Amino acid sequence: MTSYSRLKRALEHDLKQQEAHHGLMDAALHTRVWLQAQPTDRVCLFFHGFTAGPYQMERIGQHFYRAGYNVVAPLLPGHGRAGNWGKDNPPPLPTAPEVYQTFGLQWLNLVSLLGDRVVVGGLSGGGTLAAWLALEKPAQVDRAVLCAPYLSASSRVIDLFVKKVDTYFAWATAPKQIVDPATAAQAPPLGYSGFTTPALRAVLELGQLCQQRVKQSAIAPTFTISSESDRAVSNFDHQRFFAAALSHQPTSWHVLFNKVLDIPHTMMTAQEGNRYQHLLNVMIQAFVESDLTWAEVEEMAYRMTQNRTFNQVVAELGWQSKASKDMPAMVTMVDKWAIAVKRELDGRRLGRSPRDR
Predict the structure, then answer these.
(1) DSSP helix/strand/coil, 68
(2) Which pLDDT value is given to residue 250?
């Protein structure tokens, strides 16, 4: 069996040399690893978005590393390669979902050697891969965090176009370098400037497979995170995926960021537009470290609408050991008004007030 120290060295040094042989667009596009001196209770496996790179996981990776986790954010297959890419020479992105599936399983098995329980997560297409792993290996995945997963596009017309038309698509905003005002450091180029539709079709097919399987299959606890300001993916399909997951796995959560927060599809970092990047990381940690069903989260949120603090509610319910220290931040993002209205309507249908419960 490979010792932890040897595996740590392979991930921190040997893998970087191996990836360098491919010729990357930027050194910052290498697989990111944050490894403790010893195996950890939990290890995080985070996948970046379609055409982007592991730099998207820099902040959340550091956040969980400081919290005592091992963290790995691998470079997705075919991504980050240096070249004169364009319409006549498109980047070498996979065009079959099986490539991503094989890649995801290989990394899941590898990081299982770094900790006792595995948390998988991802953004956009990376979130799609994390969702598939939660369905494919529910006993091996402890938690799955799906940040704006690409289950389908925000428009059915776009989905139809991706399915039926083979062409090259260039992003409206070309990749650029952005200065992080907090560090005055430049972020790497934001991935490829374009792609062929068969490459995106591979991710869409994986997303549609997830939507089909979640209706009838066991799934690991999932946290689906959406934003009303996201113009890229379908929040409606996120809600349907969550509802289906919840029917099989009660410890599944869902949050839809309000439009006033203006959180874009690229929600993982401040550099790519999320001013509330730290809040997102704290919410994810609350999910990972809590043992609460969604019904219990809603109960906590509802009781807080009755002029009670979080600590008071947790104490009266006896859930101190089940709730992460970061749950107060999470509960601030739960739609308490919608929960209260639903309770009121349910109470009327039953002929009693929800306050009688």
Answers:
(1) coil
(2) 97
pTM above 0.90, yes or no: yes
pLDDT tens digits, 144-158: 999 999 999 999 999
Give the Cα separation of 42 and 332 in Å (integer): 26
User: For all residues of the chain together, what is the average pLDDT?
Assistant: 91
Residue type, 129: L
3-state secondary structure of 124: coil
Q: Which among 195, 221, 230, 191 is positioned nearest to 48, based on CA atoms?
A: 191
Spatial distance between the Cα atoms of 33 and 15, rounded to a whole number of angstroms: 10
> Which of 217-255 are b and which e, b meaning 16 or more Cβ less than 10 Å from the residue's Cβ?
eebbbbbbbbbebbebbbbebbebbbebbbebbebbbbb
Q: If we measure between CA atoms, which residue out of 292, 274, 288, 268 comes closest to residue 122?
A: 268
Beta bridge partners of 225: 147, 255
Which amino acid is present at 38? Answer: Q
Residues 6+ apart with CB under 8 A from 21: none
Rounded distance between C-alpha atoms, residue 330 and residue 317, angstroms: 18
